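Blinded run. Sample ID left blank on purpose so nobody reads anything into the name before looking at the predicted structure. Input follows.
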Amino acid sequence: MNALNISSFIWSVADDVLRDVYVRGKYRDVILPMTVIRRLDAVLEPTKEAVLRLKEQLDAAGVANQGEALRGASGEAFYNTSPFRLRDLTSRGNQQRLRSDFEAYLDGFSPNVQEVLEKFRFRNQIPTLIEANVLHALLEKFLDNSINLSPRPKLNTDGEVLLEGLDNHGMGTIFEELIRRFNEENNEEAGEHFTPRDVVQLMARLIFLPIADRVQSGTYLVYDGACGTGGMLTVAEGTLTQLAEERGQEVSIHLFGQEVNPETYAISKADLLLKGEGTEADNMQYGSTLSADAFPGLKFDFMLSNPPYGKSWKGDMGPLGGRNGIKDPRFVTNHGDDPEYSLITRSSDGQMMFLANMISKMKQDTPLGSRIAEVHNGSSLFTGDAGQGESNIRRWIIENDWLEAIVALPLNMFYNTGIATYIWVLSNRKPEHRKGKVQLIDASKWHTALRRNMGNKNCELSGNDIQRVCDAFLAFEDTELSKIFPNEAFGFWKVTVERPLRLAVDLSPDRRGSFRDACRKAKEETLADLVDRVGSELGAGPHRDFNRFMSAVATDATAHGIKLTAKRKTLLKTSLASKDKTAEPVIKAVHRKGTAEPDELRGLYPGAIDGKTAVVEYEPDTELRDTEQVSLLHEGGVEAFLREEVLPFNPDAWYVPSNVKIGYEISFNRHFYKPQPLRPLEEIRADILALERESEGLLSEIGVGSQEKIHPSRLGFIAGKLRVPDDFDSMGGLEIERMFGGVE
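Blinded prediction complete.
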């Protein structure tokens, strides 16, 4: 049986044994740890007697630290010193005896396996299994002769192979398939999924192939900050080992991973134990990568990850110090003349924070530096405004020239989501021909259909598909599906464009009466008296120079000992004045000659105050405020853009240079979208005439040349038959009328 068939068999165990004992959402609490336990049991079967004999000798000799010797006897990175094998327990007829012996069996495992069982919380399930009288049936199912969870083949009495052995890769596939199906049953979030092996293989090749010829014999560290069951790490290890062997190099690879989900963490640790990699299993750490980094002092040569996306990291904020108190150097750094440059994203989605964490672990003092491949959904390309966390991370990455390429993957590549996904490839040792440039590869059409869907996954990357992507990546050429851009192509200045506030004042008796009511509510009737006096002096108006009006107000206020507080000035603007685009701009401040240079782009204009030359600064109208995104590649920069694109239409516009922010975003659609050309009208007309004949005179029934309207249901029928909705969407009414000779 292959791995998928075995996983289907194990899946059926849940329905056969656990139905009516657990709700479906809880099946995984039993099935996953039992799969691990049976695999461990099968691996240890050949050396069971040797371990028991050695245990007896060590106890008799009073040896306290027995772990290393027992691991040697088992031939694995783990052992079990209980007198039982799982198969022995199926003979227990008494439930209490079965429970006692099964717990003793679990207690016999080495400490590293105990941690796995603890994270599964499997011992909590034993009372339920005993009370429901299903533990015996569960054990028998996992020991069924029709499946083989052992790495060794199952033979008949003549020595012939009945069932092939299951290697560690196959075991990993079973884990992933079971968890995928459980996640699907429980409607887990889109980010709660496993990365298919074909995607992992592509990621591994993207980080290793460019430097394969430069890999020397030695030790390399590989890291995944969201390691799940550890599949990325093991594929990366195998890929690097193979590439090194092909070039006559011997490499020692150490794997490091961190996982916050206790269940998948337990599987990752068990997987490495089963491979005999006890030290590597110890490098798998449990906890949140964002708030409890397990490897703060380590730097890594290669890093791969598929962090959760669309998932809140709000729970990590508290341990980090709260949003405004985060000082972790992974997320607050020095960049762009800002010593506290923030890489902190929205709390609703922390995927880019995982990328920042990886970048903080890059090696700076080795010839190869560090290489990163990380999977993201589309939001990492464009979410976050200029100055916000996501945009800041993109800017930080691109301005440091770390981004080599982004590869757009096909849709429906993952088990539990069909959304668009992308592989980001980073390096802090870019080759000369890549420096200052970023490559975008559209591989969304390079895939092979699956014969049978696996959840949402309906396609895969075949060996040829992977090679095609790698070839495009290594070629680094501008083609239809591979585009090369300078780093600055993704950057922009976000410019706030201001327009002056223009106010007119109506001092008619009715308007002054309304203003008095407003002043009465604000307990500012003194101000209403002032306005009455000014109105008598200036007349009813309307007065379209608010500055002149305020000058008269100030003169009266001084004469009567009234202080023009900010509250009173606001009342005059909001309750008396009204906006008028024909009015003079409201002056905010006056700079005497020599204090500011006149510049219309900065809202500073030459003027005369008291007969002396001055520079006038206008007050902005917040309702007319607008923003522009100006490409960093725009010739002449922000001011040239405003002179060309803004001032011809709004001559009174300006911007404040200190408010300009730099942002970065990456749009695949803009660079790879191809509009479909419209078909000629004659061709569409021929199709419609053919449809008329096919539909037994539907149009004739209406009457060609008449003005009768076609019923919507008939139009739907026509459109459905034609299968050309784009044509109808793009055609104007006159074109349709010409085609049908007047039919409306």
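Unblinding after everyone has recorded impressions. Residues 721-744 have pLDDT under 50 and may be disordered.
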